[in-house]
Amino acid sequence: MMKTTIAAALALVVASGAAMAEFKDFTVNGDLVTKGQQEAVATEAISNNPNPHAAIANPQIEDQVRQMVIEYKVMSQYAKKEGLDKQQAVKDDIERMTDMVLMKHAVNEYVKKNPVTEKELKDEYQKESDRWGKTEYRVRHILVKTQDEAKQIIDQINKGASFAKIAAEKSLDEESKDRGGILDWTSASVFTGQLSSAIMGLKKGEMDKVPVQSPAGFHVVKVEDVRPAELYPKYEARKEELRHILLQRKVQAFIHEQVLRAEVKDAK
Fold first, then answer.
1. What is the DSSP string of 90-149?
2. Among positive and negative, which fits the CA dihedral 256, 262, 267, 268?
3. Ramachandran angles phi, psi of 28, nearest 5°
4. Which class for 52: exposed (0-12), middle (13-18), buried (19 or more C-beta within 10 A)?
């Protein structure tokens, strides 16, 4: 439920700055469906779309939402006609859904009053940029299961064996083995386990004297080349994604705060 609520809040922010479709009031068997109700359905649909910007730009969104609302209304009318709204299970579902709707609106109201500021965006960008670092590395590695095997490979390479050939024959990294173990240019910060510190401790052309462990196994690591960082995206390119990340954090913290204030105990 928390993910749904946060997604809805994110969609509200996206939709507020977009040119939504021109919905018009209409009726279904005499029941009025307002423009506002359709916009609410559209916002919910956008929140469930992995690409909300594309969903907003969809020229068919008006017709799609209209069809969805018609289906909701027709089936709701049918259920009432059959007396389903009088069943206790239905009443329980309605109460549960009411809580969920109220939660969504509470979060949306919080988001309106607590938007992500430009300062917060720039501060977070700087933190990420600092984590990326000022240097990028071109790394060559061989991944094997055991430390002993990695030690043997290091010994073989030190005696003149081809790093690339051994990588092709023995590395468990399917993506790099056929390229002699070469990895794309990147920051050392993206590597897991002890790899990050090991890579930063090597100079251009150096191979680590000992195997380096990661969750995947043991690595024979060599730094082929280094250069000043150039791959980390510029602020404007990263800004909107950071806004969503920070907004999600704010919403999660807000919900957590309310939960901590609640008195929860077993019913007697």
1. HHHHHHHHHHHHHHHHHHHHHHHHSPPPHHHHHHHHHHHHHHH-SEEEEEEEEEES-HHH
2. positive
3. -125, 110
4. buried
Q: What is the predicted pLDDT for the residue at 17?
A: 39
What the block records as the tokens of 179 is 């390229």
Model pLDDT, residue 44:
79
For residues 181-205, average pLDDT = 95
Mapped onto helix, strand or coil, the DSSP state of residue 228 is: strand
The kind and range of the H/E element at 253 are: helix 235-261
Tell me the sheet residues that pair with 142: 220
Which range among 21-25, 48-52, 101-105, 166-170 shows the weakest confidence by mean pLDDT?
48-52
Both tokens of 41, joined, read 């359905």
Given a cut of 90, whether residue 128 has pLDDT beyond it is yes
Q: Please state, in angstroms and rounded to a whole number, the distance separating the CA atoms of residues 32 and 4.
A: 27
Q: Which of 260, 38, 35, 8 is nearest to 109 (CA)?
A: 8
Query: Which is more confidently placed, 3 or 242?
Result: 242
Side chain identity at 70, as an amino acid letter?
A: I
